[in-house]
Design goal:
By secondary structure, the chain is of the alpha/beta class. The protein has 2 domains: 49 residues, Helicase, Ruva Protein, domain 3; 138 residues, Dna Topoisomerase Vi A Subunit, Chain: A, domain 2. It is 41% helix and 13% strand. The strands form 2 sheets. Strands 4-3-5-6-7 form a 5-stranded mixed sheet. A two-stranded antiparallel sheet has the order 1-2. Helix 4 links the parallel strand 3 and strand 4. Helix 1 packs across helix 2. The chain is elongated. The N and C termini lie far apart (52 Å).
């Protein structure tokens, strides 16, 4: 595609670098921004820059937050004896939207995938084990995707924590094999959490 402006081309390239955004969509976004008042554009750019510079990862659960300890971990009304292990922050938001879960989380920010060069040591699995060793944890829910990589990660975590005197469960298989939590409707996700099963019985 030929551009009349190098600046426009650079903006399109940046939008195109976002997941799921093709060249045509990137061009529409760039042209849309050109039509916006300067204060809107500056607010948009400032929010992205602030996100990159100031975002924190909770030292306890690894969830993204505005302060060192995320609002979920610091909420005394939540069930701190229950930890749900998920792949990403998107999964936390998906589960929270169901309104059916009141425990804490442990965000891996990935799953074991040798093809992508991601091994167990690249994920905060030891940190999860440390939380269990500290005491107060009664149950760990493995709520990872039902892909081969997700199943491999769940099995690895289970083998690491089964020696502790806690219950290890997994979400019910109402979610089809290969599905990601973020694409699952809230009702199905809520039922899968409510009807979770002991991991070792699968």
């Amino acid at each position: 595609m030929a551009y009349s402006s190098k600046l426009l081309e650079q903006a399109v390239e940046q939008f195109n670098s976002l997941p799921g955004i093709g060249k045509k969509s990137a061009l529409r976004m760039a042209l849309f921004m050109l039509k916006q008042p300067m204060e809107n554009v500056e607010k948009f750019a400032s929010s992205i820059l602030s996100l990159s510079k100031n975002i924190c990862h909770c030292p306890q659960c690894n969830m993204i937050a505005d302060s060192p300890l995320c609002p979920l971990c610091s909420d005394s009304r939540r069930n701190h004896s229950l930890i749900c292990v998920v792949e990403s922050a998107r999964d936390v938001l998906s589960i929270e939207n169901t309104g059916k879960y009141n425990g804490l989380y442990h965000v891996l920010e990935g799953i074991i995938s040798p093809m992508d060069g991601v091994g167990p040591s690249d994920l905060p699995i030891k940190e999860l084990e440390d939380r269990i060793v500290q005491g107060g944890v009664d149950e760990v829910i493995l709520a990872l995707s039902t892909s081969m990589e997700g199943e491999t990660t769940s099995l690895f975590i289970y083998n690491r924590i089964k020696k502790y005197n806690i219950q290890v469960t997994t979400i019910a298989r109402g979610i089809a094999f290969g599905d990601d939590l973020e694409y699952t409707d809230e009702l199905s996700l809520a039922k899968s959490i409510e009807n979770r099963q002991p991991f070792k019985n699968l």
